[in-house]
From TrEMBL:
<keyword id="KW-0812">Transmembrane</keyword>
<protein>
    <recommendedName>
        <fullName>Type II secretory pathway, pseudopilin PulG</fullName>
    </recommendedName>
</protein>
<keyword id="KW-1133">Transmembrane helix</keyword>
<feature type="transmembrane region" description="Helical">
    <location>
        <begin position="12"/>
        <end position="33"/>
    </location>
</feature>
<keyword id="KW-0472">Membrane</keyword>
Amino acid sequence: MDKGKQSNGSVIATAIVLIAVAGLAGYFLYFSVIPNSTHRPYRTEAISYIRQVIMALNSYAVDHDGQMPTGDSVEQCFSQLIEQKYIDDERYFWNQRNAESLWNASKPPNNNGELTPGECSFGYVSGLNFNHSPADTPLIFDAAVSPGQFSTAVWDGRALVGRLNHAVVAMEITAQSPTEQTSATPQQGAIFEQRGEHNINIFIDLIPKEASILIPSSP
């Protein structure tokens, strides 16, 4: 066989492989990165709002011997921050992506000075003390469907968790079912974190017994 033709054939074969790889890369880019990019502004906003609420809780705690608001509901707890002027806008407690994914609703808070069901997207661990509770204790979170259980639908398999030390991280949800964790096939599950040789459930192992996990009320 002519070496030139053989060489050309090899080049063509290599080009075909590269085109196929590029096509597959484009496919995965479209179905993974692009959907996330549409959610990114909402997630960035949610992270910013969670940090603002943690700062308000910190200021509240400074004036109350380290203790943060307590109550029967997350709306009742957070309303104390509004009533006592630690935060001045109800929108800091709400996120459109959470509202649409969990409740199929998109109406923002009316900003009348009191949070009501549907006007708060974030859960809250009540009963913590800034002076005594460990700094890595979860404080605020989203995507919750019940205490310690989260929906993969909001942030494509993750939930935002803000801690006493002001860190806010998108943490992976370990779904109860082994199916693919996407917004198209939402699952529910807990959040685990590796600590040395142990994989701990952060909403069981890091929450003090005297604390309560409160989730937002649906509209």
